[in-house]
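Final report, closing paragraph on structural work. Over the funding period we assembled a curated collection of sequence-structure pairs, and we close with a single example.
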Amino acid sequence: MDAQDAGQDAQDAHQDAQDADQGKRFADPEYRRLLDVARKSLERTGGDLTRTVTVKSPDDRERRAIIGITGQYRPEGAGVLAVRLEDLDQAVREATGRGLPALLETVGPPLRDRPAERQRLAVGREAAVRSAEESFLAEKGWYQSWLAELNADGTLTRLVNAGETDQVRLAARLLEWVQRRTELKAAPTQLAELAATITGDTKALNHGTALATLVLRALALRLGASRPKTTEERRDLWDRNGVIVDDLASRVLVLNLAAGGDGLGEWLTSAKAHGTPFYVTLHQLVSMPVTLPRCHVRVCENPAVLRRAAAELGPGAWPLICTEGQPSTAFHRLAAAVARAGGELSYHGDFDWPGVSIAAGIITRHSARPWRFGANDYESAVADGAVRLTGTPQPTPWDPSLAGLMRAHGRAVYEEAVADRLIGDLGRA
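Its predicted structure, as stored:
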């Protein structure tokens, strides 16, 4: 840097300091509201200084400050004082040597150009939608609904602001993959493998990523299902679309369900011969498909019921599957296999609102029948011992009067309390 440049920098710095000193008065309280409305106007119009702003119900100091800026007398008690931005800009220039926009950025954050922002958002949203509409899925109703939802609820705006509109294009590619694999009836694939194939990143579809959220929303619409809220619901939704999240963590507890097939089929048959409970993982169900007989399989919610059946009835108990609370992806896959084999499922669970919700899902999805899970069963059980019923009431479409009785009694009956009756059914071979 030569002496001339250094001298110019020093002169500029001195001028900046002088301007700041001269503009200090605009930091006083009497200018605060005026500068606030000036900022809003400039941001709203993209910097248009031809507009007029107003200060409502000004106090005396604000009134005098505005008189000083405009050179026009304003009487005391005036309800609204109007100031042309050009006059305010001129007053600022005379005091600081710089215009109103520069002052506002000195005393506050940078000015926003909202018209330009809106234009940028509109262009970004349009580009994201256009990239998704190039897919062969664009003719499908569920896909159109997905794009419409993203635009309507602000998702596209958030993606544009975050610089992540490419996630929409990637989501479309992932959905195309699911559709093609479904049409080809291809074997399921692992989630990490799918993520790497489409994005190059094995973790791109981990829970919480923008891409996973976009794809799961679309997959729910594709199946006419609700958006998943829990880990197991997310796993199940992926699985129903041919993608496996964690085939070792997802499992289901089984008693006395013999099956054909190498590996898993042999193990299930051996476990039935001994009347012992057996855990089946999703990995086993996928990698070692079984052939099931056409039979009546009962389903319970609590493992205590299955444990008693194994202890008291052993190999003589009817086939029984336990959800252990919320059904896992492994449970749904095994239940679907029972139905495909022409078998029948009957379900019993807790007489509480979460139990009713689980029952509704299983009965609807797998065409199961209720197993001692109607209004009469609840009525006879509620007197034997119950606890206070809490939570949000749920419908019981298989027996509408059940929900009404539960609300009337306000008591929950857990499955263990009626286990004697269930064990009795399981023993009638």
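Residues 386 and 413 are 5 Å apart (CA to CA). The first strand starts at residue 52 and ends at 56. We thank the funder for supporting this effort.
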